[in-house]
DNA sequence: GTCCACTCTGTAAGCGCATTCATGGGCTGT
DNA sequence: ACAGCCCATGAATGCGCTTACAGAGTGGAC
């Protein structure tokens, strides 16, 4: 910048103005500066600007590394949930003039989040359970943080969640009322998965609504993978007594896994047994039969996150907001609906 | 930082050391500082650090916004190519201690890339044709840039591409030699799509290899969407003379589109006519029949990009490198292979 | 011709941190 | 007990930019 100023025979302040508020500089001067800048290949330092202006123009997103968890064994088979969120955030951020900094949670100890993201952005979003609460607590005192999905752990943060409970409740009701299934089994996720919990709760509510017996716990649990879906299904079918008329899974991957087991056993879906999932991953529409599920608006999660951040940046005194994003029951063949 | 220093009764230099080189500070001091930092919720400013240390610890990625182009009409049906690249880069970047800044190309004029990304990162990758060459030219004088996919436009940049030509050539040879198809039709992309061009060229080479007539241009073109795939297929079938024994598409989306048309017309795939795609998107394995295609290693594109950047950062004098990533022919039913 | 009101540009003071260099204190060895 | 060393720390400088603030020029109204 100093070089540009010198060669254009102006002060660095003017160079700065040319880029920040071009209107404040006479046209002749501006063009002269621009020309020199181009010639010299001037690239303004984001760091310096950030330092001087106390804002970086960047928003952040922290998400878990799915490497060895939900990713689904079948390589790249699904658009990962977080991919959609990233995309949604990127779009929205761009609209607002921000860039997006992303970082999967790193094993690198406490320093990680703070050093990697918090110091470089004007605000950021965190996928629930990605970052230790304590650390969030600290960081959120310095800059806006919005929590994505999962329950609201810290009530002074903005927070966006999807209507897990309501979605599962609707889906269950559909099974009961529209398809007359009453012998239902629910396959949950790990006990510490809030989403899976909420979905099970929705299942409970629907049972209650219909006057069916309300179970205390899922009939089986799995780790949200296809393999666990298969295992859970085997387990359910091995139970004494009549087989369930429908199995509701806490997520799609498990439901898809179940399909294979059922087919293998000669059980027809949905005639002999209905199957449902949750999440709305693309895979569900491509299986045979296509799986009835509940679609999560992952992209909108990201967009809303940016909106909240931008709003809070504009007015830090706003009251923390908690948004509940609606979900959509997607009826397909696996529950008995035509396609 | 000044506050922390004051309350911990040390100088700011010591606070800095506690975070940068903890070993250089006596343990007692270090813990005292850490305690105060935690108490105060100290978050080091990335900008200031970047300024002082002349490096940001961030790598960047510029990619086109697929909003209204390749995205595929079927909402979220595919893992977008760039999603995989993002993921690959993020992983690799994290391994090397970098964070990732992403920005889809923005309509915001020339200022955009430079202001948004270049100034904030230590180096970045660009998906081919995302950024005007001239702008890249300028920026690449200041920091490492690696070009992803597409032909090598600037020979002083590091560059990674996938073996489009070779892949299509192999695939075509497979069709000819292993399935005995000789009446082939190729559906290309837009004329200014280097990837599609390269693939067509591979097709030409294979024809030549086999002593078949070598076409000058694709038999049809489309915009890489399913809709265009359908249209192209209709067009081909409407031509006078015998129908082709195989249609090779420049990408998967078009091939998938074709499947529907063929089924509708009562043509069996692959018995009456073989179909192949290119890219290896997940969708291809889920159609009926599954589509033979060529898988692109998108994730590895991203990882390699980071590797190149890191290497160049370590040694700016290295000679520019051009990496060609191998692709894999994935044989499935649509070409006549068993599944 | 004078004075005022603008417009455009320059001056200078930081922004929060890393880092070099100097300094002081403790320790070793004698 | 003293010289010599090293380790831990502090003081000071600068990274490249933004942004009041002030100053210089320009034009118009009187």
CATH architecture of the largest domain in chain A: 3-Layer(aba) Sandwich
Determine the oligomeric state from the structure.
homodimer
User: What is the terminal-to-terminal distance of chain A?
Assistant: 63 Å
Top CATH class of the largest domain in chain A: Alpha Beta
Secondary structure class of chain A reads alpha/beta
SSE pattern of chain A, N- to C-terminal: HHHHEHEHEHEEHEHEHEHEEHEE
- The poorly predicted ranges of chain A are 68-78
Estimate the helix proportion of chain A, in percent.
Answer: 40-55%
CATH topology of the largest domain in chain A, by name, is Rossmann fold
Choose one word for the global shape of chain A: elongated
Radius of gyration of chain A: 26 Å
Please name the fourth-level CATH homologous superfamily of the largest domain in chain A: Response regulator
Biggest sheet, spatial arrangement of strands of chain A: 2-1-3-4-5-11
| Number of domains as seen in the coordinates of chain A | 3
Return the average pLDDT of chain A rounded to an integer: 89
Which sheet architecture does the biggest sheet of chain A show? Answer: 6 strands, parallel
Please count the helical segments of chain A: 12
For the secondary structure, the number of strands of chain A is 12
Please report the two chains with the greatest interface, counting residues with C-beta closer than 8 angstroms to the partner's C-beta.
A-B, 55 and 55 residues
């Amino acid at each position: 910048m100093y070089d540009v100023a010198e060669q254009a025979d102006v002060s660095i302040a003017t160079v700065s103005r040319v880029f920040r508020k071009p209107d404040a500089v006479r046209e002749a001067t501006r063009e002269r500066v621009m020309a020199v800048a181009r010639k010299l290949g001037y690239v303004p330092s984001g760091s310096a600007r950030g330092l001087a202006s106390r804002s970086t123009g960047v928003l952040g997103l922290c998400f878990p590394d799915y490497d060895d968890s939900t990713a689904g064994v079948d390589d790249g088979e699904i658009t990962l949930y977080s991919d959609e969120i990233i995309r949604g955030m990127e779009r929205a951020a761009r609209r607002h003039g921000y860039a997006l900094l992303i970082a999967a949670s790193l094993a690198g100890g406490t320093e990680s989040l703070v050093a990697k993201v918090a110091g470089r952005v004007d605000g950021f979003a965190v996928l629930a359970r990605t970052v230790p609460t304590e650390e969030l607590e600290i960081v959120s005192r310095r800059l806006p943080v919005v929590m994505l999905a999962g329950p609201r752990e810290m009530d002074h943060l903005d927070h966006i969640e999807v209507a897990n409970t309501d979605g599962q409740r609707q889906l269950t009701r559909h099974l009961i009322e529209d398809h007359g299934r009453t012998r239902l089994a629910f396959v949950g996720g790990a006990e510490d998965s809030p989403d899976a919990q909420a979905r099970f709760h929705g299942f409970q509510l629907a049972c209650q609504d219909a006057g069916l017996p309300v179970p205390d716990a899922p009939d089986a649990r799995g780790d949200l993978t296809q393999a666990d879906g298969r295992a859970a299904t085997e387990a359910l079918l091995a139970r004494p007594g009549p087989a369930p008329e429908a199995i509701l899974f806490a997520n799609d991957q498990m439901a898809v896994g179940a399909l294979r087991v059922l087919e293998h056993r000669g059980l027809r879906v949905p005639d002999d047994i209905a199957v449902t999932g949750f999440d709305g991953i693309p895979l569900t529409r491509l299986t045979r039969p296509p799986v009835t599920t509940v679609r999560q608006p992952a992209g909108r999660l990201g967009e809303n996150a940016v909106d909240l951040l931008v709003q809070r940046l504009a007015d830090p005194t706003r009251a923390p907001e908690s948004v509940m994003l609606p979900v959509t029951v997607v009826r397909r063949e696996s529950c008995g609906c035509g396609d």
